[in-house]
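Pilot study result, target chain (339 residues):
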Amino acid sequence: MKIHLVSSTDFMAKGTGVHSAFVGMFDLLKEKNDVEVLRNQEGFGDIFHSHSYGLYYFLKSRKYKGRRIHTVHTTPATIKGSVVFPSLVLPFAKLYFKKVFNHADVCIAISPMVEKNLRELGVTSKIISIGNPVDLDKWLPDKEKKSKGREMIQLPMDVKVVLGVGQLQKRKGVEDFIELAEKHPDIYFVWAGSRPFGAITEGVHRINQKIEEAPSNVKFIGQIELENMPFLYAAADVFLFPSYQENSPLSPIEAAATGLPVLFRDLSEYEMLYESDYLKAKNNEEFSQLISKVFEDSQFKQYAKDLSADLVKQFDKNAIREKLISLYENVYNGLDIAV
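Predicted structure:
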């Protein structure tokens, strides 16, 4: 059986979680010889599986009627805080995304919130829940990785580092990240990420001005290639994820896989998604308290690391791979799919 795995992020928008998830799934499927995996332009397969939703998705899937699978990373809820004029864009986004999802025979919901959004949108395709896999071996930290990571961010080994990863937009909480850095002048706050959607990204000029006016302990290092992310995580002491809206974000789970304490915003989607406890804050004051406690209380820091170790178990790549292979076989053989 040949799986035709497709994502336009191979050609654009590589600095996104969607691309990381696409590459991660491709690598995971290639680990064994039970299926053959084609990537984008490599040919024609038995099953079509897309991670992106643009024109490329429709063009590549034309010959796969009855065998189309779409992993849903983005829903209309993602629009707010991501692009300019969201109230104008949202009605059209809902119509478009509904067409995207109904074009597939099966939609994979990567989180309970995504499944809820799909059903509220009136999607008629079959919906199955399968999370994003995480390769724990890839993210294991060591002293060599940390040293290389500190060289990447141009900081010495003896300073404290809080890391943030995400696009430079309001939804990701980048402005809160800067505010928190102002509250902790003795700690370096390093943000990795760019603007894959360019000028239509929400708040370009406002956020650029805040970046220019940010204190000296804040470093914006731009987009980091996927293969260098293990070094970046290893360079940090704490991972801060102040995003205001997510579906099933990869970066905090990758950070947790490296053993970092991870600080989340208190969001309902996380309550629905995560099966174990995690550190969360409702506002910047609570984030600030957590940051201080992690650095000042060694027992609390170990507790935070233990939470990370428990959190990543939910995203075990082997269990998720089994679910994917079972889905492919059922779609290929025209069998009913449990939803």
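One observation from the pilot: Residues 136-315 form a domain with the Rossmann fold fold (CATH 3.40.50.2000). A full batch analysis is planned for the follow-on phase.
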